[in-house]
Amino acid sequence: MWTAVVPSSKQRSELHFRGQLEAALEAWLVKQNDMSRRAIISDVHSNLVALEAVLADIKTQQVDAIVCLGDICGYGPQPLECIELIRKNAIWTLKGNHDEALFVEPVDFGKNARLAIEWQRGILEPKLDGSAADEERWNWLQSLTSIHKEKDVEFVHASPRDPIYEYVLRDDFHDSGLGPTQKAKDIFASMDWLCFCGHSHRPGVVSEDFKWWRPAELEGMSSLIRKGIKTLVNVGSVGQPRDGNPQACYVLLDYEAPGDTTKTGFFRPLPEIASDAKTIVVHKHDIEVRIDDDESTKTSDQLRQVREKLLNLPRVTFRRVPYDVEEAQSRFRSIPQLPDGNGTRLAKGL
User: Fold this and answer.
1) CA 72 to chain centre
2) Model confidence at 232: pLDDT above 80
3) 172-185 as b/e, with b when 16 or more CB fall inside 10 Å?
């Protein structure tokens, strides 16, 4: 048994306490670091310049895997290149509504979206004299599924109750004085626990308190995910941001790598600790980490921060990635079949 003990006294300053705590945490993490990190991207929309910038940023984040929630296609000038990059880098990919529209009649598409997908269909659909690679790529796109589940964690393109088409928006969770909207209640009723989506191009996180948090409203653009509280995370858009911020957006998910997921779900269950606890003892495998506070010198906020670190609570962090918008717009303009609006809107993220 390896034990770290951080005592407190009235004579120790808060700074000294934090130093002792960080030393114990560092030793503990060196001994047992079993956190995993996953990058979740969505809505690339054939914007290769944005996708390359996001993949470059992901490389600096030491992720274990990349997943894609769909809509590689649509709007932009480079669907082929984006498809190949996603296939090379993502461990799995979902089908979005624009990807679906390559094979069926588009649903609720405006003129700009329809013109773009019609042009892309002509580029991507195999020709009689086409290559085997063209055929294989087309079949891969058609075979994509609309949902991916890992126990009580769900990944969709659009919404947990309509994984391809339904938009989940901040306004859906607005309380005008009559309580949560029926749509918001129905969305949570359709979830087991945690759901990641894209589609609306508007990033945010919302739990069962029905309060939608934009990335900029979160400390460090980061939010803890608590077991037992249903939470939906919209990861935003790589290639067509629509939240007034032109920078590409994606999410990092930090979580404890699951052991026997047949019993524990996506994350291992965590012990309950009262917010006013004076002593925290956490057993992790052959490690015990103890934080004692017999004289109640630490605030409840400090205890909360200690508890979050020690318990490896899963966390989502939004990443905003600047890219060369002018270069992207130039590539949009190079394709006469693409409406001007598909590229001009990139400058303001609208």
Assistant:
1) 16
2) yes
3) bbeeeeeebbeebe
